[in-house]
Amino acid sequence: MSTTLNHCRALDAGDPLRSLRDHFVLPEGVIYLDGNSLGVLPKTAAARVAEVITREWGQDLIRSWNSAGWFNLPQRLGDKIASLIGAGPGEVVATDSTSVNLYKVLSAALGIAAEDAPDKKTVISERSNFPTDLYIAEGLCRERGYKLLLVEPDGILPALHGDAAVLMLTHVNYRTGAQHDMAALTAAAHATGCLAVWDLAHSAGAVPVDLNAARADFAVGCGYKYLNGGPGAPAFVWVQPRHADRFRQPLSGWWGHAAPFEFTPDYRPAPGITRYLCGTQPMLSLAALECGLDVFGTAESLGGMAALRAKSLALTDLFIDLVEQRCAGHGLGLATPREHAQRGSQVCLTRKDGAYAIVQALIQRGVIGDFRAGDPSTGSGQAPSTGSGRTGTPDILRFGFTPLYIGFEDVWHAVEHLKQVLESAEWQRPEFNQKHAVT
Ligand SMILES: *Cc1c(COP(=O)(O)O)cnc(C)c1O
C-alpha cells in the first residue's frame, strides 16, 4: 500500500519527540537534510554567546576563568557528551578539532602498541574512511615507521591477522551511512592484540554508542554535526580509563599539565582525560556547543538516545520507501544498508550521472542535502561514476535525518521535490551543473 501525506502527518502527530524541534531555528521554506554535515542553530545559542561576550568577557574579564567556570568547560561539556556515547563522567573532554584529536589518540595508541606489541607495524583503516582520518594516519605512520593498510569493509577481519597494531575506523561511514558493529570489531581486534580507535563523527547524537560496553580503546567525535555545536565547534576525545594515565599525547601543552598555574619549566601530564587538552580553549565556541548538548538533556526525559534512534530509523525507512514508491524509473540506487543494525542516520542514493545537479536543483527548492563524489579507486562492481569507462563507486546524493528536528512530513515533501526535479529534468539546467568550492 502506498504511503500518503496524511499518513506522514499522523506520524508527526504521534511522535513523542516532536516538541524537540521547537528548540531549534529552522528557516522558513527549508527542509534541512544536512545536519550530518552542519547541525542547525539551537534557539538558546545566540543569547548565550551574547551573554558570554557582554557579561563574562566584557564585564568580568579575566575573573571569568574562575567565576564563570571557563577553565573547566572542556570537562563539563565532556561529561554531557559522555552520556551520549556510553562513557563515564570524567572520561571525555570537548576540545580542538576531530582531526587534531585523532592525531592525539592515534599517537597514544601507537605508543601503547610500541610497548605491548613491538613487532606489530601496521595501522588498518577503511579505504572509504573520511579523508582527514586517513591523512592524519598517513602522517603519523610516516613519522613512527608504521605502514597504513587501507581495506574494504570485508577486508577488515582478514587484515587483523597480519601485524596490525591499531584498527582505526569511523563508526558510521560519511559517504554511505553504513554502520560498523563496534563491539564485534573491537573484540576481533583485541583477540589479535590490536587496539581499536573509533571516530564517532557521524554517530554521536545520531545513533546509540556504548564505548565502555564495547571495550573500545580510544574515540574522537565531532561537535558541529549531530551535536549542533555550530560551524567549527570543538570536537571531543574519549580514552578508555585503563589507558588514560598510561600515555602522553604528543601535543603536551599547558592545559594538559597536572598543575598549569605552577608554571614549572617541565611537563607533568594531568591524570586522566585532562592530559588530552593542549592550550587555551575557545570559550565562545564551547558556550555555543553547550546549547546544542543541552537539547539532548531535554531529550533524555523523552526517551533519550533509544527514542531518537527509533525515530531516526522510522525517518530513514520512510524516505527509502517513498523514494522507491514515487521516484522509480529514474536511475536511483541505494548505497545505505537496509538492515537497521548497519544503518546510521542518513540515506545515500546513487546515480550514474547528474547527482551533483540534482542536489543543486533540490537546494534551489529549499531541500538541502549534499553531494559526495564517487570513489574512483574502489572497484566494487557498481556502475561507474562517469561514462568515461573508469571503474569505481557511483556519485552520491546524501540526505541526513536528524531525529531532533526532522519530521515525517518533511520527508514526504523532500521526496515530492526529488520526484519533480527528476520528472521535469529540471536538474539539467546549466546553473545546476556548475560546481561550487564546497559541495
Ligand atoms: C566530519 C568529519 C571529520 C571532521 O574533521 P575536522 O577536523 O572537524 O575538519 C573528521 N572525520 C570524520 C569521519 C568526519 O566525518
Descriptive report:
With 439 residues, the chain is of the alpha/beta class. The chain has 2 domains: 5-32 and 304-433, Aspartate Aminotransferase, domain 1; 49-298, 3-Layer(aba) Sandwich (Aspartate Aminotransferase, domain 2). The protein has 14 helices and 15 strands. The chain has helices spanning 5-13, 45-59, 64-67, 73-82, 98-116, 131-144, 156-160, 182-191, 211-214, 241-244, 283-300, 304-326, 355-364, 408-423; strands spanning 24-25, 31-32, 41-42, 92-95, 122-126, 147-151, 164-170, 195-199, 218-221, 235-239, 333-334, 346-351, 367-368, 370-372, 395-400. It has a 7-stranded mixed sheet, sandwiched between helices. Strands 11-12-15-14 form a 4-stranded antiparallel sheet, covered by helices on one side. A two-stranded antiparallel ribbon has the order 1-3. Helix 5 (98-116) packs parallel to helix 6. The longest helix has 23 residues, at 304-326. Mean pLDDT is 95; it is low at 379-390.
